């Protein structure tokens, strides 16, 4: 099985910096309102995509955010359980996050057959490519325009 690593801000949801939200959050289906009235919306098809991907990939997260602010968002939407060794850390070193997730999976004895990384921004990718062997990058909203298209592309990659 391959490892599929997802970014959060601008990839899974429309907010550009979920760490700026202020708990407590009020959840309404696929969006939330924070205590100051700011909203964060899951992009269409996220739930269906994760449900499809859960048995096909090791699903994880590499997110430059404050875990104390952002983990409750994933928990509140009921999405936290999809992820194994998710990294939500207050630094931009995604290569380091992904490498540690790979090592943790390997320490558990899993055979990881490759890594795919999905992010709405390509600023991290050069660093990631030189650090993580044979990683495949998918630029969200550039290479694919929806989570439905992302699923199709992943099916094609096999
Ligand atoms: Mg992003």
CATH architecture: 3-Layer(aba) Sandwich
| CA-CA gap between termini | 10 Å
Give the biggest sheet.
5 strands, parallel
How many domains? The number is 1
The average pLDDT is 96
**Oligomeric state:** single chain
Fold-level CATH name:
Rossmann fold
Side-by-side strand order of the widest sheet: 6-5-1-7-8
Count of individual helical segments = 5
Specify the CATH class.
Alpha Beta
List the SSEs and their pairings.
Layout lengths: L1 E5 L19 E3 L2 E3 L5 E3 L4 H8 L3 E8 L2 H10 L10 E3 L4 H14 L7 E5 L5 H7 L3 E5 L7 H11 L1
Parallel strand pairs: 1-5, 1-7, 5-6, 7-8
Antiparallel strand pairs: 2-3, 3-4
Helix pairs in contact: 1-5, 3-4
Bound molecules: magnesium ion.
The site of magnesium ion has 7 residues, from loops.
Quick tags:
3-stranded antiparallel beta sheet, single chain, binds magnesium ion, Rossmann fold, 8 strands, 5-stranded parallel beta sheet, alpha/beta, 158 residues
Structure characterization notes:
With 158 residues, the chain is an alpha/beta fold. The protein has a single domain, classed as HAD superfamily/HAD-like (Rossmann fold). Helices cover 32% and strands 22% of the residues. It contains five helices and eight strands. The strands form two sheets. It has a five-stranded parallel β-sheet with strand order 6-5-1-7-8, with helices on both faces. A hairpin with a 2-residue loop joins strand 2 (26-28) and strand 3. The longest helix has 14 residues, at 94-107. It is globular and about 45 Å long.
Question: Outline of this structure?
Answer:
32% of the residues lie in helices and 22% in strands.
């Amino acid at each position: 099985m391959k490892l599929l690593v997802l970014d959060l801000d601008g990839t899974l949801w429309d907010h550009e910096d979920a760490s700026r939200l202020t708990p407590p959050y009020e959840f309404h289906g696929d969006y939330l309102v924070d205590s100051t009235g700011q909203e964060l919306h899951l992009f269409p098809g996220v739930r269906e995509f994760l449900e499809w991907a859960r048995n096909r990939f090791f699903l994880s997260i590499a997110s430059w955010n404050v875990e104390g602010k952002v983990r409750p968002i994933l928990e509140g939407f009921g999405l936290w359980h999809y992820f194994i060794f998710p990294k939500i850390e207050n630094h931009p070193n995604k290569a380091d996050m992904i490498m540690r997730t790979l090592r943790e999976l390997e320490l558990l004895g899993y055979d990881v057959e490759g890594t795919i990384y999905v992010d709405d921004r390509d600023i991290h990718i050069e660093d990631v490519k030189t650090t993580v062997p044979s990683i495949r990058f998918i630029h969200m909203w550039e290479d694919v325009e929806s989570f439905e298209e992302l699923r199709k592309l992943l099916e094609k990659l096999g």
